[in-house]
Write a structure and sequence with these properties.
Length: 617
């Protein structure tokens, strides 16, 4: 057989086939040849155009990675793969519809245009210039060929032209913007009196019969879920560091290696601090221009800096090491050369210009002062090196073991225990859903196996097993009686307060005043905006939900607030100020126009999608 193949490979037919392969490879690449023979299966057809399985699976992989990257603790087991596949297929169908529409409109990008775009993309540049090796490597990391990437760019660019054209066409009438600002900036005048809970406490009584009835009517609320007590081994770099023995000789050698770094560097800084407001950019530009013109930094600090203490010293802050200033300030300061002035730096105090006046280094502290710190550093460094190795050992040992005692003993680790873990989780490390899901899996819960080794954080891996299992059960009435009594008391108190407030409002509307009812005195609040923090969000929400008063008659309402009910008398509604030439007006108009443009684009997408003929495989 092998000899026949060798003989036939020398024949004319073989040479023709090889020639065709070479031509195909040179034009379309290996993917096209393999695809040509294999038939490129499709997952859907849109108006006669196929969405291939290869394209679909590649985008599914990209979308899965994107969703993982958004997790605080990335765990592939938490991904809903079916939902991802549905979402990706629908997005590819929508994309195909838009690409077809762009083609119908005659929108296209030439090869030269694509070359220009690619060479200008920063992710493909090295030292500011396009680098072909970087380009090819980046594209391959995306799971794409160069030709496929270029074609994707071609399609996306023309679709984006349509999107931008429609999105930027959104128009909003100025009067609509003004009306929204009048409402947004509206203020209200009102009076308020608060009734505390204790004013109705004598009306509230909860009987044993009511507690029993509540318990019977709400059985599900008093179900104690199934739970487990778990044994576990937690492997962390800190745990390994505690096991590392650092000798005196190793400590001295490490001290010598670090001696140049251990000399503490202090920097003497001066700054000009201005407030971060509407005029900040203009003020900062003026200061920088005057500095560029040769004016003295210290004189400008005296003139402009709102840090009056340092301004008297020309902005001089004296010497300081790391950990003293705001993080952004420190980062900028320690990047400066002596005599250099930074670009503007924003912190919670305002905007700074920083000048480095001098640098000094202290002598290296003696080993005795640093011994504990250096010993911990060296131990952590050794633990870092061993972590991956020990992690693999623990995973292998735990997989083969019937318990956790053996793996723990072999590696010098500790078996710990946590109680009352439900399917919703428990105390750390069982606040990690991937670990909890493993703990309640059939293999672990019913068959008694250990879990897999789960990374619950950047520096910790955990393997666990079920020590004890408790089925879901109904909590007895005597255990929850106090809880029910408290709930019913709160409920009845609110009902009593509501009824009392309704009675008071009715009497106020009939002409009575608070003194006649013996309630207390009004507190007045004039010209109050929606976000007034003084009386709280619940009260302000209630105030702004009331109808506008007619004439001199107040409009009354009530709202639960804190430990009582607030009775509100709305006296006036003041229209908000609108500056049609101001930045607020301009920004809101731009924002609303953008929203309108996005709605129009979405409607256009939906129109094309509904007209498309789609066949799913």
């Amino acid at each position: 057989m092998l000899q026949d193949i060798r003989d036939n490979a020398q024949g004319t037919i073989a040479k023709v086939i090889i020639g065709l392969l070479i031509v195909s490879l040179s034009i379309w690449g290996m993917d096209a040849i393999v695809g040509g023979f294999s038939g490129e299966p499709e997952v859907a057809t849109v108006n006669g155009d196929d969405i291939t399985e290869r394209e679909f699976l590649r985008v599914v992989q990209i979308e899965s990675q994107r969703r993982l990257s958004e997790m605080d603790n990335p765990d592939p087991s938490l991904l809903d793969e079916d939902q991802i596949r549905r979402d990706v297929l629908e997005s590819l169908i929508q994309e195909k519809v838009m690409i077809q529409d762009a083609g119908n409109q005659g929108l296209e990008l030439s090869d030269q245009d694509i070359d220009s775009l690619i060479t200008q993309m920063p992710q493909f540049q090295v030292d500011g210039s396009f680098n072909r090796d970087r380009f090819v490597a980046t594209v391959r990391n995306l799971g794409m060929g160069v030709g496929e990437f270029r074609e994707t760019m071609r399609k996306q660019y023309v679709v984006n032209q349509i999107r931008a054209g429609i999105a930027q066409s959104g128009i909003v009438a100025k009067e609509h913007v003004a009306q929204l600002l009048r409402i947004q900036n509206q203020t209200r005048d009102f009076r308020m009196v608060t009734l505390a809970e204790d004013t109705v406490s004598d009306q509230v009584e909860v009987t044993e019969a009511e507690i029993e009835a509540y318990y019977q009517d709400n059985q599900d609320a008093f179900q104690q879920p199934e739970r487990v007590d778990a044994q576990y081994i937690a492997l962390s770099r800190e745990t390994l560091a505690e096991m590392v023995d650092v000798s005196e000789d190793e400590l001295r050698d490490y001290y010598q290696e670090r001696s140049s770094e251990l000399a503490r560097e202090e920097r003497r800084a001066a700054h000009i601090l201005i407030e971060d407001g509407e005029d900040a950019e203009e003020t900062m530009s003026t200061i920088q221009e005057r500095l560029s013109a040769g004016e003295d930094f210290s004189e400008l600090a005296e003139e402009y800096s709102v840090d009056t203490v340092s301004a008297e010293e020309g902005g001089d802050l004296g010497f300081a090491g790391r950990g003293v200033y705001d993080e952004a300030f420190e980062e900028a300061l320690f990047q400066l050369e002596k005599g250099e002035v930074s670009e503007p730096v924003s912190t919670s105090f305002g905007i700074h210009l920083i000048k480095l006046l001098d640098v000094q280094k202290s002598e290296v502290p003696p080993l005795e002062e640093l011994e504990d710190e250096l010993r911990r550093e060296l131990a952590r460094s050794r633990a870092e090196e061993r972590f991956a190795e020990v992690r693999t050992e623990l995973a292998d040992l735990a997989y083969a073991a019937d318990d956790l005692d053996g793996p723990a003993q072999d590696l010098g680790l500790e078996v710990r225990e946590k109680s009352n873990i439900t399917r919703d989780g428990g105390e750390a490390p069982f606040d990690h859903q991937g670990l909890v899901r493993q703990l309640f899996s059939e293999d672990v819960l019913q068959d008694g196996f250990n879990t897999e080794l789960i990374d619950v954080g950047d520096n910790m891996s955990v393997v666990a097993r079920v020590a004890r299992y408790q089925e879901a059960q109904q909590q007895p009435l005597d255990e929850v009686s106090d809880e029910i009594r408290a709930a019913l008391t709160r409920q009845k108190t609110r009902e009593a307060l509501d009824q009392r407030a309704e009675t008071i409002i009715s009497e106020l509307e009939s002409g009575k005043d608070l003194q006649e009812m013996g309630i207390g005195e009004w507190q007045s609040y004039d010209d109050q905006p929606r976000n007034n923090p003084t009386v709280g969000g619940a009260v302000m929400s209630g105030v702004f939900s009331l109808q506008r008063p007619e004439g001199d008659e107040a409009v009354y309402g009530s709202v639960m607030s804190g430990n009582g009910v607030a009775i509100i008398a709305l006296e006036a509604v003041n229209e908000g100020n609108v500056n049609r030439e101001g930045a607020e007006f301009s920004q809101l108009r731009t924002f609303l126009a953008s929203l309108e443009g996005q709605r129009e684009y979405q409607a256009y997408q939906q129109y094309l999608r509904e007209r498309a003929e789609v066949e799913r495989q």
